[in-house]
From TrEMBL, chain A:
Gene Ontology cellular-component terms listed: plasma membrane
Membrane topology designation: Multi-pass membrane protein
Keyword Amino-acid biosynthesis: no
Major localization class: membrane
Protein name: Autoinducer 2 import system permease protein LsrD
Keywords: Cell inner membrane, Cell membrane, Membrane, Transmembrane, Transmembrane helix, Transport
TrEMBL record, chain B:
Record lineage: Bacteria, Bacillati, Actinomycetota, Actinomycetes, Micromonosporales
Membrane topology: Multi-pass membrane protein
This protein's GO CC annotations: plasma membrane
Annotated PANTHER family: ABC TRANSPORTER PERMEASE PROTEIN YPHD-RELATED-RELATED
Protein name per the record: Ribose transport system permease protein
Keywords, ordered alphabetically: Cell membrane, Membrane, Transmembrane, Transmembrane helix
Transmembrane segments: 12-32, 38-57, 96-116, 160-185, 214-234, 297-315
Amino acid sequence: MMTVQSRPLPMRPRVRPGGLLPILAILGVLLVLVAVRQPDFFAPPSLMSFLGRSAPIILLAAGQYFVIVSGEFDLSIGSLVTAQAVIAARLIDGEPARTWPVVLLLLGCGALVGLVNGLITTRLRVPSFITTLGMFLILVGAVYYWSDGAPKGALSEEFRRFGRRAVEDVPLLGRIPYALLVLLALGALAVLVARSDFGRTLVAVGDNPRTAELSGVRVWRHRTIAFVLSGVAAAVAAILLGGYSGVSFQAGAGLEFAAITAVVLGGVALGGGRGSVAGAMLGALTLELLLALMNFYGVSGALRSTVQGAIILLAVALSASRSPSR
Amino acid sequence: MSAQSLLPARWPVPGVFVALVLTVAIGGLVVAVDGGQLFHQATVVSLLHVAAGLGLVAVGQTLVIVGGSLDLSVAYLISLSTLVAAETMNGSDGAVLPAVGLALTVSAGVGLLNGLLVTRFRINAFIATLGVGLLLKGYLDNGYDGPAGVTAPTLVRTLGYQRIGPVPLSFLLLVAVTAAAWFTLARTRFGHHLVAVGGDPEVARLSGVRNDRVLVTAHVLCSLCAGLAGIYLASRLGAGAPRVGTEGLYDLESIAAVVLGGTALAGGRGGVAGTVGGVLLLASIDAIFNQLEVDAFFKQVIRGAVIIAAVAVYARRALRRGRS
């Protein structure tokens, strides 16, 4: 959105300028800090449950990556997560038999919201900031309106399983949360998609839509698919989050900004054209680790956002100063 | 002032005003059929009050967006400003001037920080102002559970509630601030530089504009506007309110108003007159639905749809004019 498009693109053989080095360095520093304060953290049980807890935001960051690298924003995912959790609770209403149909419905819903975001942005040429902001207002309003101001119904135990249960008695690791398995599978899928022709074209679209268009890329279709991916990621995140922490109107509050922050921390340029999905997911992991770290160091709940804000600014400033191309 | 002269000629300023007139006309009709009255004094007054608060923020937001930046920290800054003002006054009329001065100084400081992060540290404005917002949020969450301080009674009586006919004093303040911002953008060297920086930073730099200085100034002005909105809200509420900015969604709504007013989010094009139109449009929709006693949540759905639809109409028109 605010990039200078003056720099000519030299012929670089597949070296990504928005590399993983800065985010790995930051992650390393945080890991050392955790190790100093709380060595127990690295014991398999707590590490596994930490990774399981981080799964939703990491998936959201992966979805957001596709949208951001194509040069757009998705501000609707937080409200989408909330809406999905509330919808799930109301539709399932404690009936185990309704679990799978509702899961499929949620994934379809996520894809649909992404599709609408994408089509409005690409076909009607509304800036995605406004499209997804409008969608945010619509989703929040609709879900409150639909449930008269308080969430109704309940999730079934089968539904909650994805977010809170684990594969027990695994040798060495103890228990592996289902959420972690979902994360590994979808994370690998995200990396594959990012490395496919589609993923590479998407980066080209974000770097210079005009050039991509002239080279025969259907820009609108690629961007729309990116929004759909983000919507589906939000649906999965909603299923995991709803299972883990239950249903409330605050379920997804602020997640859109957290995901965007994570993506930027991971070296992806806002405005598109640069960065990797692995970086985005590492950025989300770093953000979660930061929150855990603040817990260990006893930073009071209220002051957290101050510390978080300061560290994000510091980290982004550092990685920005490292990359000469900006 | 004629709306046409406010902007570089390419952008259709009256668009938002046409939408505003249509909305008010249709809305007035629907309300009348429903048995209500849109142009009732009380309705108009409350509409203008809503517009004054959002408008002050949005005018400031216009300046940074025209410069190719944006400010997501305004919502927290508004809350902070209500608290600084109300706590400094603490109910005494004598302390109005120092309180206003202090609130504006704090705001300017936040703007300076935003500006420096964006320019010197080269952090993307989205992330930089979001981060500063988090800094402020932590301070507010840590120090305040509920309303604090007492606004001086004179200020409540004047800025908060006094009006001339149906026009509140606060709306006149908005008009004055808008006029000043318009003059700055359209008639001063700083304004022209700001538009140039927003249009193409590299070209501006090569033409001898000091981009950094211009953008920092824009951020300071934006934060001053948000601080002013905070002072207004403090005098409206009679106390400092640590959540008023975020609950009012002032960050996102102000950006929506700016875009509704025809300013390009990418910068370099737009103006404050359109923004005020956007603010009035949002406030009228609000008033119409209040009159119809539409559910508050449903209202939000409509509002989201209207924002998207309105911007889509602009985009269509821009497309027809042969945009790239």
